[in-house]
Specification:
Chains A, B: It holds the Pfam family PPK2. Chains A, B: GO terms for molecular function: kinase activity. 2 copies of one chain form a homodimer. The N terminus of chain A is likely disordered. The longest helix of chain A is centred in the first third of the chain and has 25 residues. By secondary structure, chain A is α/β, with parallel strands linked by helices. A 5-stranded parallel β-sheet of chain A has the order 2-3-1-4-5, with helices on both faces. Helices cover 47% and strands 11% of the residues of chain A. The interface between A and B is large, with 42 and 42 residues.
Chain lengths: 293, 293
Amino acid sequence: MAKKKQAKKNAGKRKTGDSIGDALRVTPGFQLADLNPAAKPAFSGKKQDAEKVMAAARNEIDDLQERLYAGGRDGDGPAVLLVVQGMDTSGKGGIMRHVVGTVDPQGVKLHAFKAPDAEERRHPFLWRIRRELPDPGYIGVFDRSHYEDVLVVRVHDLVPPSTWGRRYGQINTFERKVNEKGIHVIKVMLHISSDEQKARLQERLDRPDKYWKFNPGDIDEREHWEAYQEAYQAVLDKTSTDENPWYVVPADHKWYARLAVQQLLLDKLRELDLGWPDADFDVAEQKKRLAAT
Amino acid sequence: MAKKKQAKKNAGKRKTGDSIGDALRVTPGFQLADLNPAAKPAFSGKKQDAEKVMAAARNEIDDLQERLYAGGRDGDGPAVLLVVQGMDTSGKGGIMRHVVGTVDPQGVKLHAFKAPDAEERRHPFLWRIRRELPDPGYIGVFDRSHYEDVLVVRVHDLVPPSTWGRRYGQINTFERKVNEKGIHVIKVMLHISSDEQKARLQERLDRPDKYWKFNPGDIDEREHWEAYQEAYQAVLDKTSTDENPWYVVPADHKWYARLAVQQLLLDKLRELDLGWPDADFDVAEQKKRLAAT
């Protein structure tokens, strides 16, 4: 009871001294506008320290990922799904490259959701999401996701407000069903400042080796900055549940965001308490057979 | 003319002093049985040296892969397809993890071909292969491939010999068409000895954390070792073409095989002479727009 009271009192506050995951988890009352995108919650080191922490975690992640994969070989066992959202230039690609990219690619199923194509538009918005859910044993990674259907779609009213308005509840129901399939979800929002986005877009315009990353539409979208912040706030208010909470990761420092997402993945893998599957054959018998070859 | 004569004289021989790729490329007359699976062609260093070479190549591969990816953004530009074949335990998984795994996962499309399912069996054998070809800008990776249709299928006569016998020519035609789509193919066979396979299977039976990798069927297959070697020899004889040659990589030393495949990938990326795409927008105009936000 006292605990609950305390939780209410701390609503929306971030504690330091906790794990990064505890510090970044969205609780009721959380206000996006109050979080400094340049903050480094629950981490007091510098960039080089973060790189050391990340390097040190890699062996454990490797080991846990292999156990996860092994457990999926007979078609059941858990899976993990990392959902990454964020404004243009918030560093989603860097997460894919520097965090997801350190995991054995055989156990990863990465999908980048673009604007839906003609076939996808003919189906309910969750149809294409369902098709990309990870099989048992896999770490699925969504670069953008079903949340675009209450973000860009809401900002531009691509469907009537009554339609997108229903989607928050549909998403919560969907994610509970995803959990029931044994898929453990980590939802990450990379949170950057408007100034940092401007600097990153500027870099893409200053460097010919970055032109290909630039799209004039990015500036159109930038003009809807406030509307996007509101749409994200609504996502956090309505879809950060006990089962599937959001983690808002301050991302003006790319190195902090990478560290944070790696730690969230590590925490989730640890939680699963993964063993090695038993042999589904007679070990002694197979040894005898092998020796005879 | 003199060159041609020399080539004929050297048929099946491996030169040292060349690049690893030159040393491993299959030329007419090549005999698999003559290649020592413990050899380290065109590399005189040890394991630690190989690891240094691999680490040093990573930045260049990163850069080239990003150029490849950038070039594919408008739906054309080249792609690369790495085909990896080899007996059970030959280290295909290690190549995926330690070579493919160092490349940005956003630009990689990895597919492991298993025994065909019911739907796949209803189609011609190349149907499922075609579906997994990389789009422009991607590095496609096949862990097993259409070559299984002249390997396991031949060894076990899963289709009549007249059917698998026609497939070599069909594969050559198919791969030429793949080239015409702008997909550059690297075909790698990981070559291990029977003794090394025995040791690796033994390890899977000795270590409970490896049980999940063992399948009693692996020993059944091992009993067809000679038939598989013959089937591989036929593949090399019939499908190592000027356009799409095979590279046979001695793989008893895992570290050598990884180094070799990384160098083959690097060589191919270098060959493509990849620049950065031009801006398809007016840079000055977009800078002005951005400044105004």
